[in-house]
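Possible regression after last week's pipeline update?

I re-ran a chain I had predicted before the update to compare outputs. Posting the input and the new output here so someone can diff against the archived version. Not blocking, just want to make sure nothing changed silently.
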Amino acid sequence: MDEREKLRKFRELDDAFAQALRELDKTSRKPEPEEAAPAQDEPHESDPHGFENRLRALMADYQQSDTSVDTLLRTMLKLGKIA
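New output (post-update):
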């Protein structure tokens, strides 16, 4: 797998994690009026398996194991890229 493909995979996983963090943040605070109605084209935030399903699909598409994704998350945490 070349470097461009690896970078593309990382960006897609990073986007999925960023979306999950936004969803977690929204559930931990009171929604503001403009956030009260979710966009129709986005997955519904009350779906507890939405993020997991999207992540599993990406992992399957890119043949990434649970271990490799776990390592990625731990590395991102250590580097301060995610909270």
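Follow-up from reviewer: compared with the archived run. Residues 3-28 form the longest helix (26 residues). Marking as no regression found.
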